[in-house]
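Collaboration report, partner site 2.

Our partner group contributed sequences for two proteins of shared interest, and the home lab folded both. The records are reproduced in the order in which they were received, starting with the first partner submission.
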Amino acid sequence: MNIIRTPVVELTNTPALAYKFKMSSGGAGLKIIYEGSDNTETYAITRRGELVASPPQTAVSDAAKEAFELTLGLPYSARGKVKAVFVAATDEDEAVSETTPEYNMIESGEYKAWVAAYIGADFKMNYAKLNKDMIQFAAKNKTVAQMVEEKEPVEAILRRIVQIQTSNLTKNKEYMTPEITDALIATLEELDARSAFKELKLHIQKMYRK
């Protein structure tokens, strides 16, 4: 059974592999697999980009800090379990893949369209370009201007921008539902909580003051 995860990265300061994965409980997790032993580490990643160890009292290791940086912006896809190189895949990894949402965002045309449009030469999401394009769109779009004038919440305006831009990327004139749009935004933000849509949100906040 496949896991929704990023490509595996090899750490430079520690003999270990790591990857980010989509947790069955929601949100992103980080897995560290150490060479030559059965030792692994698992962390949850908050929406603010903070690592939370499991169990929570455990200190965040230097390996986890490096793995977090190396996996920033790497896209999710359905991939095989990590095994044979260092240690066998754990039951925990298998449990992550058992929860299948009603709408599989990772395999959706909408998610794949955003990845295709903004994947960089380093195979990471280019959120600088993404935010630049979204800001240029927001600055001249009449719907966005009206929502700003009516003091709609930032998240509502972001949702509308993503709906419209997804329609443009997929050439589908029918907009996604708010629920699916929110799921797409959450998935893109999981890849890099520090950069995804950050500049766009700041720009929308500035638009209120004009």
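Second partner submission, folded after the first:
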Amino acid sequence: MRRKAVLFPSLLLLSGLFTGCFFGAPSLQQVRWELQRRFPEARFERQESFHLGRLSMGLIRGIVRLVPGEVEGREIVSSLRRIEVATYRVSSLPDLDRIQGETRFEDQLARDGWSMAVRTREEGSHAWIFLRSDEAGALRNLFVVALEEDELTMVRIDGRLDHALAEAIALEPKDAVRRIKDGGEEEAEEAAGTS
């Protein structure tokens, strides 16, 4: 009997570790449930989703290593540990201005050491971008939630994201600078056009 008393909690703990329940962030499904709770009249119909965990990403890294010669993006792939994406078609969503204050998933992420990098509210859409760093300050996790009148998109990426970002910029530095510059000019044009 004592053996079963120890075995069950051990299995429960291991299942939590392998499913990602104890890695300090709500799952994409939990965020969808939170939004469903906030908007009970809305319907969220799963369109597309995929999850690449440690095993899948390890397999991908192994395959990329087998390719001879230079492989563009090899260092980016080697920096990633987990990618999860889900897209839902949204119907019967009421006025998004009803999202006032912090949501439950924002509270949970903050408790688990995530910081909100961006929170936008525009007519018909809301978006949140959360980041988490390790003790050394390296960027380790990214969580994006974008809710529009007709679509909910969520993305979570874990790994050495600072390395992945640096590698992505190093692949096409002029293009990266141009995109950053153009993005700033577009924002300035939008602001000038609306004033």
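Feedback sent to the partner group on the second submission included the following. The chain has one domain: 23-194. The CA atoms of residues 41 and 76 lie 41 Å apart.
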